[in-house]
Automatic annotation (TrEMBL):
Its EC number is 4.2.1.3. Residues 239-365 form the Aconitase A/isopropylmalate dehydratase small subunit swivel domain. It catalyses: citrate = D-threo-isocitrate. The lineage of its organism: Bacteria, Pseudomonadati, Thermodesulfobacteriota, Desulfuromonadia, Desulfuromonadales. One of its GO terms (biological process) is tricarboxylic acid cycle. It is an enzyme of class 4 (lyase). It holds the Pfam family Aconitase. InterPro entries: AcnA_IRP_Swivel, Acnase/IPM_dHydase_lsu_aba_1/3, Acoase/IPM_deHydtase_lsu_aba, Aconitase/3IPM_dehydase_swvl, Aconitase/IRP2, Aconitase_4Fe-4S_BS, Aconitase_4Fe-4S_dom, AconitaseA/IPMdHydase_ssu_swvl. CDD domains: AcnA_IRP_Swivel. PANTHER family: ACONITASE/IRON-RESPONSIVE ELEMENT FAMILY MEMBER (PTHR11670). Pathway: Carbohydrate metabolism; tricarboxylic acid cycle; isocitrate from oxaloacetate: step 2/2. Residues 2-108 form the Aconitase/3-isopropylmalate dehydratase large subunit alpha/beta/alpha domain. Keywords: Iron, Iron-sulfur, Lyase, Metal-binding. This is Aconitate hydratase A.
Amino acid sequence: VARGLRCKPWVKTSLAPGSRVVTDYYHKSGLNEPLEKLGFHVVGYGCTTCIGNSGPLPEPVSLAIREKELVAASVLSGNRNFEGRINPEVRANYLMSPPLVVAFALAGRIDINLEKEPLGEDAQGNPVYLRDIWPSDEEITQVVAASIDTEMYRRNAREIYRGDDAWNSLRVPSGDRFAWQPDSTYIRQPTFFQGMTREVPEIKPRLENARALAVFGDSLTTDHISPAGSIREESPAGAYLKAHGVKPSDFNSYGSRRGNHEVMVRGTFANVRIRNRLVPEVEGGYTRRLPGDEAVSIYDAAVDYQQEQIPLLILAGKEYGSGSSRDWAGKGPFLQGVKVVIAESFERIHRSNLIGMGILPLEFMPGDSIDSLSLNGEESFDFDLSPLCASTGDTEAGEREVKVCATRQDGDPVHFSAKVRIDTPLEMEYYRHGGILHYVLRQLSIQGQAEG
């Protein structure tokens, strides 16, 4: 700021400290004033930009991206850069330190060599380089020592539950059970236990006539499966919210509405950058309602399949479910009717989360893959699950294989085996119950009967 630099006008800036104590030492050090002059005003605390909560881009910028099909970039000091998460219109996202975020905002572009190219010019027209404004280690140490003390943390800890007037004026319902509000668009009674029986169901020896809801390549992340960012107006979740009287400006994010299963099931596989091989020409959460050719939303296809009681599966490549652990990446496919995921490999925690929702993770045998077996997702799939029916709960990892028959549209069958990735006895128990939620509820029921 002292050298006359300013952020470029097309750059959207925001500052979201991790806690209020950060703004305390910003003020004490005097750092808040130059940051605000550059456009870095405090917009909130905690998760904002990295979860898609920094708001829309300026309309002229958004219009230019759409009309020119630009590959826009973001730089942020958060901890997530999944596709479509920072902003659905921004394709490239780079994680870096806060000073570098400011530097790139001053430069206004990402394709710059900060060691050789200037960030801009001062009032006299002289070039200003990053090295000219980068603080020394000694300067940083002096500012930190003079600006941070333990009382800042103690004071904020004492006031952490104070809240503002809006928070303190909220009416809190009484009673020992949650009072579901049918008109709420944030918290709704989920359907995870619909049709659940008191007894543990038998695993059926065959799963027949299953259809592929989607076919994915390698490294499909949990953010592809269940995005946490902003909700687009034209998406199934956006249509649901509008139908319930919510204005697009109040949509908020998928992450904020994770207590509403109606929103989250519509958001499953709805990442704007996801690629489904069943509709290679379309980007986003679309598929085909087989055997048809028309591209429809994955949610609409799932609803149609469920109405006809057609079980669903997902075909994928390597590292299915990589990235952040996310419970809705298991819950969402479960609510869409997915019974099986066949992949070349799974991320460890997500594989366990699938079992926790009663979804069977199957792994292609070594050498097999979607491509090597010439699968395109248009087949009808039959599974011989009899090896699971023989379980006594003492299985070891890698013991079981199931036989799969994929019947092509011309009637030709493709036979292959797949490894069951239920790796522990407890996971087998969860799967037998239909998932961990059903398992826990049955255990509580047994405990209640014993105590009563």
